[in-house]
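If your schedule permits, I should be very grateful for your opinion on a structural question. Thank you for your consideration; the sequence and its tokens are set out here:

===
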Amino acid sequence: MSTRTHMRIILFSLFFLLISTLQIWGNPFRGGPDEPTAQVAVSGPTAEGLAIKQLDLRNRMADLLLALKEGRSSRLLLILYTLSFLYGGLHASGPGHRKTVVFSLFLSRDAKLWEPMAYGFLLAILHGGSAVLLILLYKSTAGPLLSRNLNTATLQMEGWAYTLLVLVSLILLLGSIRHAVKGHGDSRSGNRSLMAIALTGFFPCPGAIMILVFTLTQDLLPLGIITVLVMSAGMALPISLAGYLAYFGKKGVFTALKSREKIVHKTAAAMELTGYSFLLFFSFFMALPFLRAII
């Protein structure tokens, strides 16, 4: 992928952060109890056992952060970062975190062996990094106002992310149909797929925000930022696994059909159409409550 493409993605991500929170910057008291709040669809409930383990890890991390406030220790830091990594993995194993998006994209497009892992880390870093950027934006706001602003901004960013993903997935689907009819692939679909992943990742992770707000109130924000980055590395593993399930599943089908060239081409086109169709349906389903709220 070219340097120009990377720069476009970075600039677009920064522009997306600006427009998705601009409405909230204009009114720092936005989000009062009587004002309707934009929402997105919920992926599903977290399993009780998984939720309990996450809560236990989060409480232990809070205790370690308070202990580190009294005095830094290499041993305590190592334990904190280990728990942060595990917490990130558990957190991303639950509903959400764009595993469906990653699975759909790698079912739809040709990829190299390293790409699911690379995209998983990209998505996780964007997910945790946008929480850091948002906290820095609202650092001067304290108390309940901070929580209210962050909650509203998070919902706005996620809503806009899914709305833009609807448009991107529609473009991908139409391009796939057009090139299937012509009998050749779309060389630009890889860049569009990466843009789709960047879109879905560039909104704050609620778990990361909880950690950052806690460290902000304890004057430990730099340590909180490092903790969230380590947590993001943990989140990358389940997300990457979703990509590898699609990648190896697709490879297995093509290996079984390698002696039948025509069937391979038809199967590849069918998988691409199925993946992009599901991506369009999923993104529209998630964006619908947000679109209803703003309309």
